[in-house]
Batch of 4 targets.
Target 1
Amino acid sequence: MKNVVIVEDSAIMREISVRILKDLGVETREAADAAAAVEMCREKKPDAVLLDWDLPQFGALDFLRGVGAFEPELRPVIVLIATENDHQQFTLARAAGAAHHILKPFDAPALQTKLAEIGVVAGPVSTPARAAS
């Protein structure tokens, strides 16, 4: 079973993410701050991390630096979660190790699509278009 760490200071956003991930068959662990998340990743390498950009104190860039110090094979795939479509923010995060991003608020199909893109879950089943009669 694939596992994902959710790094989010909002309890409601963590709850929503956990619910979606469990419905997709993904094991989850939660961290309200980046320092705790770095330790979780050190203890057991998750397949991916959903990382909120706007974390208090020890922030997203601190987390990225922390896991960036891991051996390459121990680094999880990181999906930045942002509230704004800020190209500069995404460029900065990508340079620090977050190759993917998703915008809040997201729904189950959007999260499933992103996780399928990085190989954590199967992609959504698409139904073929019906031919016109």
Target 2
Amino acid sequence: MKYTIGTKENPLVLKTPPQSSEFTMHVDQKDGQDILVCTVGKTVLFYQMRCIDDLSEMLKSHGDWMELGSADEQKPAKEGTVEAWGRSEKNPVGGFYGIKKGLRGRFGNYIPPLLEALGLAEVTHDARGNKMRTL
């Protein structure tokens, strides 16, 4: 599906689930494919564009709230979380949705606010332990 996410010149401005930090998201091209570009300060992360539809479908199948469980790539993700699913060999891409080695984690921190902004999911905004569910 096609989404309006922004451009490099005019990115979508989002906040992390606890609403404590801003980051931007836009669509760009890498190797002829559309990708999501997430900019957090000076750090730039890339995610496969298909993660939007794949995560939305997984949440529909899950049918209830799911903990986000954000973690850096080098740290293990808590089982049963959005983060764990975003790097699982059992997801539709068979591993990380993050593209840039060393910066493939944090899926549970940056992709849920995007789905919320697109009207595909609801995200809690507590200081810790945030969750999401499909709309």
Target 3
Amino acid sequence: MAEPKIAQKEPYVVDLEEGKKYAWCSCGLSTTQPFCDGKHKDADMAPVVFTAEKTGKAYLCGCKHAAKKPFCDGTHSKI
């Protein structure tokens, strides 16, 4: 599997809506970061689809290397 492109070395702060499904970009190629726009098809990767557990701000991984994808866990500070 190919390595993802680092979109940015900090999390994306986004507003999520409880019960809504989201597709987080795992390849780093999307032009609609942090969400998927289908560019992964050229990268042999797939988005991480998740349902928001609550409404509010969330910190989604921008470096694409977090262990708890799609959420930021501070991994970007070690890259």
Target 4
Amino acid sequence: MTLLAPLALGIGIAAAAVVLGLHLLTTRRPPPAVLPTARFVPVSEARAVARAQRPTDLLLLALRMLAVLLIAAAFARPVPDAPGPQVRSVVLLDVSRSLADPVTARAAARERLTVGGALVLFDTAAREVAAESLAVLGDDASTGRGAQGALSPALLAGRRAAARIARGADSVRLVIVSPVTEGAADAATAGIRAAWPGGIDLVRVDAAADTATAPAPRLVTALADDPLAPALALLPRARGAHAVRIVRDQPGAPDSVWAREPGHVLVHWPLADPMVAAPDAVRASGTDAVTVVAPLARLPLASGGRVPGRVLVRWRDGSPAATELPLGAGCARDVGIGLPLAGDLTLRPAFVRLLARLVEPCGGRRPAAIPDSTLGWLRGEGSAAWAAPLAAAAFADSSLGAWLLAAALALLLVEWLVRARRSA
């Protein structure tokens, strides 16, 4: 058991001693004596304060002292200790597609994961898993769907895991096993990192790189002058061994079968209605964020408004405009951005960059690793963090303090009932 505010318990013990001292000072009737005259008889009832030779009302005394001690114990913020050694570790393991060698990354994580520690797997999201999960993860490929690991959700999950295992420990080490590629840090990462009260052990592993040159995307359309055709001609040759098929009509069964092959990307991009659309904006976030503002029609997605997978592009109000869903060994993308059939929108550099995001490999392109010399802010200074501030966050998840206060209130109620009965 760890007391996060032990001073409160000391104050409670002192208060219980005061209750004991006041209980020993009792008021009683003075002994009767024969008076020579009635003029010395007091008008009110005569009582005298004296120190009791033998304590009386021991039940009331016990109830009062125990209630005071329980209140003090509740304010001392007790949390049960977690099993483990004095120095424990939280390992954040990158399982995204940016890993060149997942086996090496898992071996590094297994080496640094101590008894009583915590394991957090992260790609674009983070989740804490049992330490035994390292033994059952496949060694042939990474388990994440994201192209890179995001540091912000990983650090948040690591902080929560550290608060859980810090109870009863002396210090907690935070270890990140990741290639740390471009775009892994966002605007909130620095602030989240600053909240960690210690240094971070950063273990860099090799990042996967797309060395092959992808073939040009294939456009399947019934229009002779489809507005996507000139934009596809302006696209730079994408990196990665993947094939892209853009279908402007409803995809058929052969398209779905084709998309299940490894490295195949099926993009369903319906034609817009001929009506004039109102000006709108779409934005693709990430390493190369791009925003397109133009007369665009909002087409319904095949998911019916739900988000079945990764969101690639959003409208200006935050609703999804393009999504990606894993399909076999490949993926299928649904684009709900209706383009005008005339005009120079698809020739603008911003639209070409947006189109490049929609024809990337499944999960997104693999970004390059950040130079190690620029990651000093992530490592920080010092080593392990002191466990006491971390364990303080675990008190909110512990109901022991509330139960102690409830028990103290129950004892005070019993004390009042006993006192009222004796007075009656």
